[in-house]
Amino acid sequence: MYSRSHSTVTRQLREADVAVVDADEIARAVVAPGLPAFRRIVAAFGPDVLAPDGTLDRKALAARVFADPAARATINKATHPYIRLEMLRQMLSHFLCAKRVVVLDTPLLFESGIANYVNLIVVVYVSPPVQKQRLIARDLIEPLAAQQRIDSQMNIEKKKQLANVVIDNEGSLADTRVRVDLLIEQHLSPGLFPTAVAWTLLFWPGLFAYSGLSLFKWLKL
Ligand SMILES: CC(C)(COP(=O)(O)OP(=O)(O)OC[C@H]1O[C@@H](n2cnc3c(N)ncnc32)[C@H](O)[C@@H]1O)[C@@H](O)C(=O)NCCC(=O)NCCS
Ligand SMILES: Nc1ncnc2c1ncn2[C@@H]1O[C@H](COP(=O)(O)OP(=O)(O)OP(=O)(O)O)[C@@H](O)[C@H]1O
């Protein structure tokens, strides 16, 4: 979701040593020149979406993707399989590092169906007018472009209804920080490490899956 300050929340979680898998970060990494998602995007959108240095011209791509649902479906198809694989790989990596709680920071949690596989859904909430105003101020874009970006995702009020925990970010960043501290204390504390038996049962399949996905990534399939 745009401009709810999830980046700020993610930073705070990482500072508190909570394992975070950041979908936006991964989405940027999987479209590096030469990678399969990059090739698919160029094949679908043509060379107009390339910057002079051969990387994606994200601004040009954003202008097309957020104005047109068909173009958005195309970029989703080109990138989402690779984003999901890398998210899975990172989750397994955290798991193998004995992290019991992993936070998936993804703007498309409900739209992509990932919500069905998580234990707790946290939504960082700001009302639509505040969201739009912050987006315009941060990205220096026109109100129409800001609205198109917001409309490309599920309505925030609906997301709020579907959440188990809502972090209200209408107030100051300091207020939000306090709410995130509470979230960590109440829901994200590592707790007890799994028993040795559980760990043995879980470790080997996890290691095999992680190795397979790493090989997949390494071979750039
Ligand atoms: C269209 C692109 C090039 C625009 O890049 P830009 O640097 O301007 O934005 P950035 O990647 O930082 O995304 C900012 C926000 O846009 C929203 N957003 C991005 N892609 C999408 C999408 N396909 N559908 C809905 N919202 C999206 C998210 O809220 C995200 O947090 C880029 O967002 C992209 O490659 N999107 C497709 C991959 C994707 O779905 N990413 C979302 C996370 S999985
Ligand atoms: N509580 C707040 N008070 C004032 N400004 C805020 C607050 N929270 C976020 N902002 C501002 O809103 C903008 C969006 O925040 P941020 O970039 O962290 O959001 P984001 O959810 O990561 O956005 P996006 O998904 O669009 O990348 C930033 O300019 C940030 O400084």
Describe the structure.
The protein has 221 residues and is mainly α. The protein folds into two domains: 1-18 and 102-190, P-loop containing nucleotide triphosphate hydrolases (Rossmann fold, 3-Layer(aba) Sandwich), CATH 3.40.50; 23-100 and 196-221, P-loop containing nucleotide triphosphate hydrolases (Rossmann fold, 3-Layer(aba) Sandwich). Helix content is 59%, strand content 7%. It is built from ten helices and four strands. The longest helix has 28 residues, at 69-96. It is flat and about 50 Å long. The model has no long low-confidence stretch (mean pLDDT 89). Residues 2-8, 107, 134, 138, 169, 172-173, 176 line the site of adenosine-5'-triphosphate. Keywords: ATP-binding, Membrane, Nucleotide-binding, Transmembrane, Transmembrane helix. One of its GO terms (molecular function) is dephospho-CoA kinase activity. It comes from Physocladia obscura. It holds the Pfam family CoaE.
